[in-house]
Amino acid sequence: MILYDIVIVGGGHAGYEAALAASRMGCSTLLISMESSKIGTLSCNPAIGGTAKGHLVKEIDALGGEMGFITDQVGIQFRILNLSRGPAVWSPRAQVDRAGYPRSIQASLKKQKNLEIIEANIVELIVDHYQIKGVKTSGGEVINCKAAILTCGTFLNGIIHIGLKNMSAGRFGEKPAIGITESLVSFGFESGRLKTGTPPRIHKDTIDFSVCQPQFGDNPPEPFSCRTDFIRNSQIPCHLTYTNQTTHDILRSGFEQSPMFTGRIKGIGPRYCPSIEDKINRFADKERHQIFLEPEGYDSIEYYVNGFSTSLPAEIQEQAIRTVPGLENVKVLRPGYAVEYDFFPPFQINLNMETKAIEGLFFAGQINGTSGYEEAGAQGLMAGINAALKIKNKEPFVLKRNEAYIGVLIDDLVNKSTLEPYRIFTSLAEYRLLLRYDNADLRLTEHGYRLGIVSDTQYNSFLRKINSINKVNQWISEQTVDPATVNSFLEEHSSSLIENPEPLIKILKRPEITLKGFVDNSKLFTDKIIDDLNYRDTLREVDTSIKYDGYLKRQKEQVEKFIRLEEKKIPKNFDYKIIKSLSSEAKEKLSKIRPDNIGQASRISGISPADLSLLLVYLEKGNRHSKSYTVNE
Questions:
Q1: ∠130-4-350 over CA atoms, to 5°?
Q2: DSSP 186
Q3: H/E element, 194
């Protein structure tokens, strides 16, 4: 009988990150996929990153994960979004080769020590006294394990909808996973239904690009991963076009056959990535909507029609899409569709991704109600880490909201337990100026190295960067510039001239003056300091820390208050019913989520300041009198 430390069910982005993390931490790991050739598949758009999602990818990379590194290898266009705004919302995004991405992921998995991959369909969990013991395949084989991670994506009882037609599938052309939901429900888990959608794929040779607006990547492109020196791949442009009123009229003609409007789809769809029919219904006053034509790879004939997600009948889709400028003669290779699937509201997991009902069982990805490759990858990484730590009898690894977007993501899932597909946004991070994408390595690499996931090479590069930043900051703080040295440069940049010598750091605080521009045009810098400045990302990190020093200090003060609340622990089995003045809603939600501390309790929807005050009073009273206010489970 083979006993694995950790078994992972599902080979999507949560699954492969979990498998790599757990095996790199020394645990014997088994990754189970219904089709091993589909591991790492980009089910929807051929892109990684985006607003806030790019932050997650950078954090995954800083912790030793794989998503950013693979993206650099197979990316076909790289862009930093929101550069016209402040650095807190800058976000990297890349178009990737759809075929190359899973191929590269699978190659990484195959050469990873401590990791095996098999093909099987898991239908049941083996549990003894509410502790995971293994999983059972459709063929009746039991695979034993000490911990299990479910990363089932959209496959749990998945149904695909195209018009009034539907079929059982987790993804187009792939079978759903039947049995896992039923097994979990039998152990007391609460399940729900969600839906997501994807647009048609079209033939690139039938697109008239001459009437579309080209969208080019950055030159030079910026890598996602700390392990990538520079991007060698050639860049391919995307193109922009628009729907029109004729498009909308044709789409409306299919509403009577829409599975969404006729009530055939019961699951809730993503608020921030609606279908095209939902957009024209909700925003009827809009004359047009953006459509991005995205290439699926260097050698692929397929283009992804971003912004045209739909589950209308295939004939309606074809009629409507051919009214879009540039797509009049387009050949549709595959219609868009919606997929409806089971998920488990995430109040049922702890902050370490372990389920509350079954010890040693972890959830990650869309099973927790999220959408997006990046959210899934981040959860998978954390589940893999924490499953390995549990095997080793070590304390869980939990990132706080002030430490990472990963912390914001998981904290929101557990405490808000959204009943619609969750997507990360910069607006959800209250400390977003501290959590920039470009300082993810500074925030998290130490953690990854301590856990055993970050390599010595990556860690030594990180140490060199830290040393470079410290040296440059120290040097700048000691420098003074005189008018003769700096005024011509200031004049070129429409910045006020100086009459007397001033500290260099004061000049660099001016919004119109960048450190890069100053270095490129000034004789002030010695060759030695220029070498340090040119070390990867040093210049930008120093520039940002100087310009936003006041804001950064203010956020750090807010973090200190946040940490004080996090330190006020709540006994795990606290009986909230004994607080008579506590609102009924507060009692219900606190009992269901069981927060670890006052800070976490404060972020639960429906918990008022008055509820928190009452809770604090009882906790303080308990501490003073050494009296237990808890009950046994």
A1: 40
A2: H
A3: strand 192-198
- The full 3-state SS of 38-73, as one line of letters, equals HCCCCCCCCEEECCCHHHHHHHHHHCCCCHHHHHHH
Ranges of CATH 1.10.10.1800 domains, the chain:
456-554
| Residue whose tokens read 């557990």 | 414
Q: What are phi and psi of 503, to 5 degrees?
A: -60, 140
CB–CB of 291/305 below 8 Å?
Answer: yes
CA–CA separation, 60 vs 317, rounded Å?
37
Backbone angles phi, psi at 535, to 5 degrees: -60, 145
Please confirm whether the linkage preceding 220 is cis (ω < 30° from 0): yes
The domain covering 567-625 belongs, at the CATH homologous superfamily level, to GidA associated domain, C-terminal subdomain (1.10.150.570)
Domain 456-554 falls in which CATH fold?
A: Arc Repressor Mutant, subunit A (1.10.10)
* Residues 15 and 39 sit within 8 Å (Cβ to Cβ): yes
Report residue 161 as tokens.
Answer: 């909808």
Alpha-helix residue ranges (DSSP H) falling in 338-455? 373-391, 405-416, 440-451
Q: Two tokens at 612?
A: 């928190």
Q: What is the DSSP letter of 576?
A: G
8-20 burial, b at 16+ Cβ within 10 Å, e below that, comes to bbbbbbbbbbbbb
pLDDT digits (tens, 9 = 90+) for 95-150: 999 999 999 999 999 999 999 999 999 999 999 999 999 999 999 999 999 999 99
Report pLDDT digits (tens) over 13-51.
Answer: 999 999 999 999 999 999 999 999 999 999 999 999 999
Q: How far apart are CA 340 and CA 481, in angstroms?
A: 63
Start-to-end CA distance of the chain, whole Å, equals 34
Please identify which residue in the block is written with the tokens 């239904």.
193
Q: Which helix (H) or strand (E) holds 301?
A: none
**Coil vs helix vs strand at 316:** helix
pTM: 0.93
| Cα atoms found within 13 Å of the Cα of residue 206, Cβ hemisphere only | 16
For residue 379, give both structure tokens: 């959860």
**CATH T-level assignment (fold) for domain 3-197+341-451:** FAD/NAD(P)-binding domain (3.50.50)
Q: Confirm if 416 and 604 have CB atoms less than 8 A apart.
A: yes
In what helix (H) or strand (E) does residue 618 lie, and over which residues does it extend?
Answer: helix 609-625
